[in-house]
Amino acid sequence: MGEVAIIGVGMHPFGKFLEKRLEDFARVAVWDAVEDAGIPPKDIQAAYVANSLGGLVTGQEGIRGQVILRDVGFSGIPIINVENACASGTTALRGAWLEIALG
């Protein structure tokens, strides 16, 4: 297996933002991570989207990641949706790590 490194991170501030959509949160986190990594967006070959309750709130269960990332500016790449309750983020990170490590 190859070596894997996390080279960029991004996060929307914590708080209560009832007027915002999932896309609004993602836009901030995704573009902050891309900027932090210092890579061109065209070099991103796949995306993992983890979310626990968003589908219940928005009524969008099947292609949540595709809808969110299309609005953020990403399409035409594999987008993997991860739902694993409180472990969704960790499970998505593990999946991305494995995909990179295996080449």
Describe what you observe in this structure.
With 103 residues, the chain is mostly helical. 43% of the residues lie in helices and 8% in strands. The chain has helices at residues 22-37, 54-58, 64-72, 88-101, and strands at residues 47-50, 79-82. Strands 1-2 form a two-stranded parallel sheet. It is globular and about 40 Å long. The N and C termini lie close together (8 Å).
Q: Widest sheet: strand order?
A: 1-2
Structural class: mainly alpha
Low-pLDDT regions: none
- The number of distinct helices, counting runs of at least 4 residues, comes to 4
**Main β-sheet: number of strands, strand sense, barrel status?**
2 strands, parallel
Radius of gyration: 14 Å
Beta-strand residue percentage: 5-15%
For the terminal residues, how far apart are their CA atoms?
A: 8 Å
Beta-strand segment tally: 2
Q: Can you give the helix content as a percent range?
A: 40-55%
Provide mean pLDDT, rounded.
90
What coarse outline follows from CA principal-axis ratios?
globular
Order of helices and strands: HEHHEH
